[in-house]
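Ligand: adenosine-5-diphosphoribose. Inputs:
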Amino acid sequence: MTGVSKIVVLGAGNIGGSLAQRLAEADLAEEVTLFDIVEGLPEGKALDIQESAPILEFSTRVRGSTSLDAIAGADIVIETAGLARKPGMSRSDLLTKNAGILRGHAEAVRAKAPGAIVVVVTNPVDVMTFYFREISGFAPARVFGESGTLDTARFRTFVADALHVSPRDVTGFVLGTHGDTMVPVLSLTNVSGVPLTKLLPADRLDAIVDRTRKGGGEIVNLLKTGSAYYAPTASQAELVRAIARDQHRLLPVTAHLNGEFGEKGVYVGVPVVLGRQGVERVVEVDLTPAERAAFQTSVRAVREDLAILAQMPK
Ligand code: APR
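Predicted complex:
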């Protein structure tokens, strides 16, 4: 299967531009459209990516637009637009500003691409995904967020480094929220089937968990302006590929819970099966008592942010 007709990337910043490039190079759609409010930015990045096609041999047409009409007919929409947190800006300021941006996009997707699958990337991702779903009115299976595949990729990288093995042989999950309370699940991590807990002592594992939790901040501190986008867009492209090629991948995403893991009415990172229809099912895995408690703490943090969202004027 080659893929879908049209993928729309909302926001043509660091993430949006890099993601459009990865999607075009993977030939997952006949057309990839970049959208932004800054005149010239989506058109310029799209043309630049398009001009690499003769060398890289992809067939995808890459377009840029500053009109929300560009959403029309999208099979998959990835929401990356938004502000990054600036010094002096509170978490709730960021949350309400980004929700304001997403509202218009969710309404446009509902009107112009009613059959689309939506992947939300904008932070705080657990809350933004909840909000996008609410405004769009889409079935929860068709709107989910990306963070677990990124946090898990960072976790796998640090485990591979510590063991001097290939990162591809390390599998596992990071669940919960995309923030300080995320839950790298050590009990479900293994290296080609060998449990991780048999390969590294507890203090080394604690250090890896801590570095994973601070993974986004580590990059921000190094870059000083802007945040990570190479690993994030690799993670997003993996999700888009699973949808476009109907791969039924078992991956961690920010999914809607309706009783699974003992939680309801919240979006948070859990393992799911992902295919052309979006989230096919949430996969409930056994956690140790400590991991379950950490997961519940994580869900509480998301609910605190949802309370800020609920106070926003409708
Ligand atoms: N409509 C479309 N695009 C918008 C809008 C809007 N209403 N408001 C802002 N944008 C665009 C900006 O013009 C900018 O090009 O969103 C883009 C954001 O790009 P960057 O600032 O480079 O941020 P980026 O690193 O791409 O991250 C985007 O993803 O991982 C998350 O936390 C990150 O929420 C952030 C988002």
